[in-house]
Amino acid sequence: MCGVVGIIGNAPVAEELWLGLLAIQHRGQDTAGIVTYDNDRFHSRRGNGTVQEVFEQKHLLALTGNAGIGQVRYPTIGSGSEEDAQPLLTNSPFGIAMVHNGNVANYGSLRTWITNNYHRHINTTNDVEVILNVLAANLKDSSTNSPNEIFNALKAVMSKVNGSYSCITFIAGHGMLAFRDPQGIRPLKIGKKGKNFCIASESVVLDTLGYKEMRDVLPGEAIFINMQREMKSKIIKAKPARHCIFEYIYFARPDSIMDNVEIYKARLKLGEEIARLVKKMKLKPDVVIPVPDTARTAAQGAAEALKIPCREGLIKNRYIGRTFIMPREVNRAEKVRYKLNPLKCEIQGKKILLIDDSIVRGSTSKSIISLIREAGPKEIYLASTCPPLRYPCFYGIDMQTRKEFIANGRSLSQIQREIESDKLIYQSLEGMLKSVGNGKLCCTACFTGDYPTEIESDDMLRIEKDRAKQVSLWE
Ligand code: SF4
Question: What's the Cα-to-Cα distance from 83 to each of 127, 194, 224, 362, rounded to whole Å?
Answer without folding.
Answer: 12, 36, 28, 33
